[in-house]
Specification:
three-stranded parallel beta sheet, Alpha-Beta Plaits, 8 strands, 2 domains, about 270 residues
Length: about 270
């Protein structure tokens, strides 16, 4: 294998499962492909396969399984979970061709994923756009409940655009997006909903009081750093409900109430 690939790739070899896992911990981003022997002792192949397939960051790493020539595939079911397999008594040319094909296929899938991510991303802020939001909304699960949907609106952005120009307005929009990232939890869904409106979905909120507190804090933080106010409406989806697009409509109604009665702060939706 070293003779076959060393002119193109750096070859890292591990004789046991633990050595491979130790290397993967800090180097998985450098890995183009793994050639995995299905006869590693102590179910090493199974442990490695599970480690790669359970981690989304490592899911795209292609795996070529090698098996003894006399082995019955039915006795090695994990082989079928690899991207390809090859008998150990293989021609060098066959090994090179299969690994190259696996790497090319993985690269093509990565390019497709990048294009899809770009299609779901707002160009100005790097947050999700409406298309990305709908996909994220559709992937919400029962274990995400209860959740809160926030709709933020930058107050009087039109005045800033008319007074200082649209570049100034764009910088305010970008500032709000950066502030949202700092204030949000890692599992929050962040979206530029349109123009100067932003939508946030917070998973597993404790109760309505804590949800409202988070919305108020975000409004206050933005005004402290930019001296520009923003208003917010928040709607809750309880644990016994189903998350639907009605939540966004409710948050919009609460936002309208905030802008009419309590501009610069957050209002909850009330039936």
């Amino acid at each position: 294998m070293r003779n076959t690939f060393s002119e193109i790739y750096t070859i890292v070899a591990a004789s046991d499962c633990q050595s491979a896992l130790d290397w993967l911990c800090g180097n998985s981003s450098r890995l183009s492909a793994m050639i995995l022997s299905m006869t590693l002792p102590d179910n090493g192949a199974g442990v490695l396969m599970q480690a790669l397939r359970q981690d989304p960051r490592k899911w795209g790493i292609p795996i070529l399984a090698t098996i003894p020539c006399s082995e019955d595939l039915a006795k090695l079911p994990l082989t079928m979970e690899a991207d390809d397999f090859l008998c150990k008594c293989h021609p060098t040319l066959d090994l090179r061709r299969r690994v190259t094909r696996l790497i090319d296929t993985a690269s093509a899938h990565k390019r497709e994923d990048n294009l899809l991510a770009a299609a779901n991303m707002d160009y100005l802020t790097g947050l999700l756009n409406r298309r990305g939001l709908q996909e994220a909304f559709a992937n919400l699960r029962k274990e995400d409940l209860p959740l809160a949907v926030y709709l933020f609106d930058l107050d009087n952005l039109k005045i800033a655009n008319d007074t200082y120009g649209h570049d100034s307005g764009d910088r305010l929009i970008q500032s709000f997006a950066k502030m949202l990232r700092r204030q949000a939890e890692p599992e929050d869904i962040l979206c530029r909903y349109g123009g100067d409106e932003f939508l946030v979905i917070a998973r597993r909120v404790r109760n309505g009081e804590s949800a409202l507190k988070k919305g108020v804090q975000i409004c206050q933080r933005f005004q402290e750093h930019t001296h520009v106010a923003c208003s917010c409406g928040v709607a809750l989806c309880e644990a016994d409900e189903l998350p639907t697009n009605d939540l966004i409509e409710r948050a919009d109604q609460a936002l309208y109430l905030a802008k009419r009665t309590n501009k610069g702060s957050c209002c909850p939706w009330q039936p």
